[in-house]
Amino acid sequence: MTPRLQVEDLSVQFNTDEGPVLAVDRMSFTVEPREVLALVGESGCGKSVTSMSILRLLPRLSSVTGSIKLEGQELTSMSEASIREIRGRDISMIFQEPMTSLNPSFTVGFQIGEVLRRHEGMTRQQSRVRAVELLELVRMPAPKARLREYPHQLSGGMRQRVMIAMAVACSPKVLIADEPTTALDVTIQAQILDILRDLRQEVGTSILLITHDLGVVADIADRVEIMYAGHQIESGLVDDLFANPQHPYTIGLLGAVPRPDLLGQNGSRRLQEIPGLVPVLRGRPNSCVFAPRCPRATSVCGESMPPLEQAQPGQHAACFHAGKSPTVSVKKGLQR
Amino acid sequence: MTTAVMELTARAQQRRRLRRRFTRRPTAVIGLVGVAIFVVVALFGPLISPADPNATNYNEIFVSPFSSGHLLGTDDLGRDVLSRLIVGTRASMEAGVFATLIAALVGVLLGLFAGYYRGWLDTVVMRLTDVLLSFPFVILAVGLASILGPSLSNAILALAIASIPTFIRITRAEVLGLREQDYVQAAVVSGAAGRVIMFGHILRNCLAPLVVQGSVAIPGAIIGAAMLSFLGLGEQPPTASWGTMLSESQNYLSQASWFAVFPGLAIALATLSFNMFGDGLRDVLDPRGSQ
Fold it and tell me: Which CATH number is B27-51+71-285's, of 1.10.3720.10, 3.40.50.150, 3.30.70.270, 3.30.70.330?
């Protein structure tokens, strides 16, 4: 069976004035139908660039190599007109900032309807009926009245609901959610995640979730790809990965999560941080990208970038010294 | 059925809200009334003028204002000043409105494409506006009008060309900011084509500054047209226009100062009305509602 979305050997390079920057290096992953795959990493690790390259939204000065297939259909070589058909219909996206992602000059009903009229060829009347259904789907209070409201009359959480309603208007095959909850209150966050979870069931959408919030990952994702400096560092099922992190970076990430249940244990109240910053890659690295910040680094790490290999069944890590370290299971503390 | 009714009432409410936003500014209402008066006078000028504007009467030259038969007096040829003012309104309004419409149409299109697509198109358009802007408005308008030849339509064309660069610049600056907005990105993501984004999403959000520019450009063009006909480059005598009346009056300033006052007053009032009207319009057009 062909996967919903298949990304193979994806590399993205930006040709800047200061020379080339390798933002993503040979990423490969698949998203299955109704699956939630989380792309996790620090700021600047290439997770947003990966998602932008799927919809071909990167600026012209970037060069993208590799293959991105939607149900077997290659997206990278598609014509501009065809990719426009895909956008919003087969693959749609929601953004981090709900406050600015809606056009201030048009009503909510018009903006949801616009997508329907474009891709589904609906009339104004039909699109209005469908827009109410969509607003009900994202649990918008008083959906009918909202149609005539302008974005400035809505709260952040309500705007994000409208964004989601627009994104799923055409029942997309893949929904890319780029930090969908980062700008929202914690209570609203939980509601939005519930909506996304339901959409997967009701619409059958696969979700590519981009986040740096491991709490969100634990809450909603099925599988995780951990990214670091444009590289896949570790991948696996959420439960396995949280229980048995193999890569020292993953272990570091999990150690940096505040957890009230662990407070005071080990005689330490401090969060563990990972010292240093994510490096900017000018080209293919000839050593492990994480080596400069890695507690396990040895001489072999300075010789080549370790490939992503199976560390244990169903779980892959790109590390010469992969293996669990004696930390307590983190997942339990994160799950709501 | 009920939803349709509800929708209608909601629309009516929306309209009422917008109207209230306009009417709560007294200056906006005064401006609207002023503009309406000038437009009506321009449309029906020949019908409402009390006398033939071109009928000379050498027995009644320089009659003082407020005298019987001639409310605003007569000029050096004994023509009724009020009638000439009324009939001359059309030329001024035509110049103001059409010059601005032409300039806005061309300028907004060029600015939109230049700002959205950038690249060589942007470079060419912006260098051309730099060339036009390097001449002062008045010099440019006079220069173009004298190249095109003296007539009202050529004066309008000259004023339009001279007003284009400002419209290009304002539109382009707005577009440059708006194209980076998240909602434009969101529109791209939802599959909108370039022209949909430009005309559907971006242009609508440029309207407020463009309307303001329009409300500045119309009185500017009215003054410009008066200036060109003052210099003999616009409406040609004996056809009445505010500019030609001013030009004729300057020889008699010491004998008949009112002769210069009334056309000047007409220009000032028309300019003021359009400015105040534009201010009110901006309030209505901005859905975020200032204050």
Answer: 1.10.3720.10
